[in-house]
């Protein structure tokens, strides 16, 4: 879903995590991303 919202591939999302642009949040064994972080990327770019 994050990749779709950002209009990028899942590999790009992985790269953004590796570069520190996005931070993973673990919730009950699942990986999530903060809505605020995604919104900031959409508004201001990478």
Give the strand content. Answer: 15-25%
Q: End-to-end distance, in Å?
A: 18 Å
Biggest sheet layout: 2 strands, antiparallel
Mean pLDDT score: 96
Q: Runs with pLDDT <50, length 5+?
A: none
User: How many domains in all?
Assistant: 1
Give the assembly state of these chains. Answer: single chain
Strand order of the largest sheet: 1-2
Strand count: 2
Tell me the series of helices and strands, N- to C-terminal: HHEEH
Q: Return the structural class.
A: alpha+beta
- The count of helical stretches stands at 3
**Fraction of residues in helix:** 40-55%
Q: Characterize the overall form.
A: globular
Rg (CA only):
10 Å
Structural summary, described in words:
Helix content is 52%, strand content 17%. With 46 residues, it is of the alpha+beta class. The chain has one domain. It has a two-stranded antiparallel sheet with strand order 1-2. The longest helix has 10 residues, at 35-44. It is globular, with a radius of gyration of 10 Å. It starts with a helix and ends with a helix. The model has no long low-confidence stretch (mean pLDDT 96).
